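Researcher: I'd like a structural prediction for the single chain below. Treat it as a standalone chain; there are no partners to consider.
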Amino acid sequence: MAMVAAALFTLFSLLPPPTSAAAAVAAPCEFSFLDGNKLYSYTLSSPIRNFPHGVLSEDGFYKVAVNQTTLWFQLCDGMVFNHDPPTCADCWDCGGPTRCGMECNALLANNIGGYHVCTAIGLGSKIDVEVIDKKNPHIGVIVKMSSSSPKYNCSLAVSVLCNVNRVQAPHTLEKLGACNYATEIKHPSGCATIVSVHGRGWGWFGTLITIILCLFAAYLLAGIAYRFFLGIRGIDVCFSCLC
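Model: Treating it as a single chain, here is the predicted structure.
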């Protein structure tokens, strides 16, 4: 029995600790969920065919202008302006006048009295991804970003619609509240990767139990064989193994 205990101690020492909740959190712009025996995964910032940067705009930003409002944003990363930078009367919450748009993920400019007044509506530390419709996961996902300041609590929701054939830049902008906006793009990154899952099993705990039972069975068989070799016969062979 001492040999079994030693084997179990060695097994426990080799097992990795259970995954913590913090380690299980998905990286930004990644989302997955299980539906029956299918695992749907979206990795928006991962390279795909013809798009080495995933859903990220290679220009460094997406831009859409509707009426007197202009929106700049980048998905899954901060904005970079090598051309056509925002010009705002107030950009202190996203880089200041000399680096306007460089320190946030989404920036909105409203024309007020002939001046463009900017407000950061998305920060990189506040990005969430969720599927648009779990009953129809092929539609795509929504990327939500937000920004809080003493004046406003703002947000932007970007629907990334699945389109395997082409990319369509944003051309609409919807205002949903005092400082909440929504737009959409079409992109192959919005299409899910589907993996079939056949039985979820017990994981490492089930494997541990199986190994323990196998070791115990091997111990019993070895004991029975040894006592049979010593000349012990009948039911006493089994009972003496447990002593």
